[in-house]
Amino acid sequence: MVLLQVTPIPQAAIILLGYMADGTADLTNATALGSEAIVKNSYNMILGNNSMRVGLGLSGEPTGPQNNLEIRATDINGNPVSNASGLQFRNLKETSTVHDPNITNTVLSVDDLGNVILVNDQTGTGGGNPAPPLQSVQFNKGGIWGSCFTIYEI
Known about the structure:
Layout: E1 13-17, E2 28-33, E3 45-47, E4 54-56, E5 69-71, E6 106-110, E7 116-120, E8 133-141, E9 144-152
Parallel strand pairs: 1-2, 2-3, 4-5
Antiparallel strand pairs: 6-7, 8-9
């Protein structure tokens, strides 16, 4: 069993770390990290092969990450924080300009499993219940059923 395999490529700014990690010598500032990770473009970092799941703030979690990227919000001491995403878009603020004027009335939301999804924005004065869903797309991932998104009549 190989626990750590570092493949140096002379005269290249590339790091290959992991069993069968691969890349080419003509890349610049490229990293392949993890078993079977393959980096093909300069200024890219690849974590693991295509079946790799990455968890941030999940150290010691018995089930590990349940999606390609799962984030658990933690405070400065590493304690879990409820009702927070642990994700911040540094350059995307509430005052940011919409880049595509053809896309309107959509917002990012989360489904019942915490997956980030794009949904229609529901405008109104608040205080009421949303319209009943017209369609709910279901999925089964690892034996766990969940809703991927729901389409509402506006």
